[in-house]
Amino acid sequence: MQVLGIETSCDECSAAVVTDGRILLSNIVASQIEIHKPYMGVVPEIASRTHVKWINSVVKKALDEAGVSFDEINGIAVTNKPGLSGSLLTGLSFAKGLSFASGKPFIAVDHIFAHIYASHLENEINYPYLGLLVSGGHTIIAIIKSYEDMQILGTTIDDACGEAFDKVAKFYNLGYPGGVVIDKLSKLGDPNAFSFPDPSLHKGEHQYDISYSGLKTAVINQLDQFHNKGYEKTNENIAASFQKTAINMLLKRLLKAIENTGIKTVVTGGGVAANSYLRQSLSELKGITVYSPSLKLCGDNGAMIAGLGYHYLKNNIKSGLETTVLSRVPVFRKTYP
Ligand code: KG4
Ligand code: ZN
Questions:
Q1: 268 to each of 11, 65, 172, 297, 309, how far by Cα in Å?
Q2: Best of 135, 242, 304 for a ligand 1 pocket test (most atoms within 8 Å of beta carbon)
Q3: Is ligand 1 within 6 A of the CB of residue 270?
Q4: Which residues, 6 or more positions from 146, have their beta carbon under 8 angstroms from its beta carbon?
Q5: pTM, whole model, 2 decimals?
Q6: Nearest CA to ligand 1 atom 26
Q7: Which residue of 11, 34, 152, 230 is 20 to 30 Å from 71, comparing CA positions?
Q8: Which residue blocks in 230-270 are alpha helix, DSSP H?
Q9: pLDDT digits (tens, 9 = 90+) for 43-52
């Protein structure tokens, strides 16, 4: 079964063709990074208007590169939550139009489950496992029971992990997008140059929750120290020290989850899953099997949407034209969705 996947939840305009939820025939990701760079962040209105301009050619390119005609596509999968409403609406409306005109089914899928699914495109992975979803919008540690069922153990109570990277980079004027720049700069810095707060684990049901606002504020306040005391500002050391603390906060909670659940398989997903310090640290865990998507599948992409969508479509589960978008999803609940 060949599924066309469409992903426009934020600033990547992406489409892909995937066979049987596993075989990646094409994965076109048109990045808007250069467009949003002057603003040092994604401007929602510009993002959705750019998707409107690009979506047709991105989908066409995905079909061309896969060597598949639209007639040979069995169904369409599209992200409808969570994300920027205008951006999501572009992809969803496009998918609905294709479905209505062709009579082919479409399924609206969840971006969070899709990020976790990304590793399934490259590996045979059995459920259940521990999922670590770290992106610009979410930070979730969960027991993943199936492609559509997770038990959330912990989430961020304020900033998402990627968001903290982006905000620190913005305050220090390090460049855009922040996560990538900090990862790169860190390689030249001393991770022990600054000691930033690393809050200890809570007790009970909140033990896996995480807060990045304290760390973010401490790193940003360090900037005033440079200004006020005339110290030499070393971006590399700031980046490395921040990155080490931010990632260790995740690892601490993940290790606790492994210990408490006895689950020894970990699957990561989301833009921050590309972080080199995180990948290195995970690869050093003894007795734990870790699956991280290849770098091209960490960030937003249509392949993970097509892959996940296949599992619904093969069971004849499809969406109706009344389907709409949802910018936020209730990840504070212990069962999701
Ligand atoms: O999954 P994604 O592409 O979009 C969302 O669903 O949010 O994730 C984007 C986030 C951004 O915050 C970006 O700074 C971060 O992922 N990111 C990284 C790295 N590459 C991207 N963060 C840390 N290290 C990286 N190498
Ligand atoms: Zn994402």
A1: 21, 28, 28, 11, 19
A2: 135
A3: yes
A4: 127
A5: 0.95
A6: 275
A7: 11
A8: 235-261
A9: 999 999 999 9
